[in-house]
Amino acid sequence: MSESKLLYGSAEDLLDFENEAGLTEEARTALLSQYAGTLGTYKEGSIVKGRVIRVTGDDVFVDIRFKSEGVIPKSEFRDEAELVPGTEIEVYLDQVENNEGQVILSKQRADFMRVWERIREAFEREELVLGTITRRIKGGVVVDLFGIEAFLPGSQIDLRQVPDLDSLLGQKMDFKVIKVNKLRRNIVVSRRVVLEQERSKMRDQIIDTLEKAQIRDGVVKNITDFGAFIDLGGVDGLLHITDMSWGRVSHPSEVVKLGDRVKVVVLDFNEKKERISLGMKQLSKHPWEDVAAKYPEGTRVKGKVVSITDYGVFVEIAQGVEGLVHISEMSWTQHVKHPSQLVTVGQEIEAIVLKLDPENEKISLGLKQIQPDPWAAIEDELPVGSKVKGEIRNLAAFGAFIEIKEGVDGLIHVSDMSWTKKVNHPSEILKKGDVVECIVLAIDKEKRRISLSMKHLEEDPWDLVPSEYPAGKDVKATISRLLDRGAVVELTNGVEGFIPMSKLTTDNIKHPSEAFKAGEEVPAVVTEIDVNARKMTLSVVDYFKNKEDAEWRNYLEAHKPRATTIGDVVKVEGE
User: pLDDT tens digits for 416-432?
Assistant: First the structure.
């Protein structure tokens, strides 16, 4: 063994040399003394060269040409190639000899010290350094800078929150060193600062070249109720909800999502170009340009109900093109009080274009026109004088409404319910749901009205009154109603007449109910007839003028004045 090998070899080399040379004790002592002199060159805290001898479990044994081998944890080696025996590496001498006589070395600290100056200079000069994101840790990720680890906090990764940090692993990018601590071997870097600097440069470039009507690419940065903010690459612009689509948009999220890449047009900006208005719908043709050609009057269209009001519904028949179905154009057959009775928001419906006003962007639509108009041929189907049958749908103070056929109602006025009776309210002789026959009196197609009559099913009995009930004829009459001034009576054919109070009795009474009651039959004589006015006046007193006195006395005895009792039918004067 050569002397140089001895001086720079390990303790094993020294023993091998002793055995080979067979040294005397004196020579051996001299060589050890010479070997010990070399120990002064190994100082704790310095970086020395070594050679990998072997790897055992989690330990890596390294020969640094000292009297004993050094041990380094395997976890400190980032490159598997460095673990191959015989590979020369630089290590940090942490401790010359521990309690077990081993040299304590560190690969990581050597790596750190080797690049520390480079990192410190980059920090002081605010220079960018290239690194690789290697793994996730709590609060951020680890970045490999020249072989040593630096910390990249989550807040410094990007300008916006990164939803998937795993997607960054393995990526190389420029970073800025924002914090260093040599004693703690702590290095903090930022990617956000780099992006902000790049963003600032891009902003200046965009501001310098920004013009109205420019088409730009951008990324959706934020969404609010009134619109979305678009990052144009360093400067933000507002895409208002009204400029997103020609159609109706309830919320911006219906059109764009965070992170979407979109194409927009510059609509306007202020002098400093700090407030930029953007548009998306302006990139497409205005939908009302060819409405007149696409939807002429009479066209059948399909659309979606987008809004309901008290006066009608708005229907979107194409993106950005809405028409109004007025409440009066919703049904031929129903009296629609509110459009929600027939349609709901979001419902697909068919309608007919009734009127176009492209200049004011208005279209009138009809829903009922999809079905045939039940009144179209009503005069042919129900000529005046024809007999019809229908169900009473509703009663009003002035008459009864009857459904003649689906969508067609007619009115029987109270005056057309009876030839002979005075009907004050239809409920006196009819009720809802009754099926009745009647005669068509008149048709007003434009106003959609049909006048009906029940009484015209029979001949007018008043036509026969002059011959059947001439003045002076004795009759039997039944009291139907008692009034202040007399009694209304009914004759055998249903014709009504009136007996004044003075002609009912000669006794002094204040009201007929004191001596008479409804349903009672009395003898009378016809005294006066007015066919045109449909009035007949009768008299009980005159009837008994030509009769025996005994009959008159019996009549008066039967109709002595009495107190009015509950149950008497009394009518107020003027009914």
Answer: 888 877 888 999 889 99
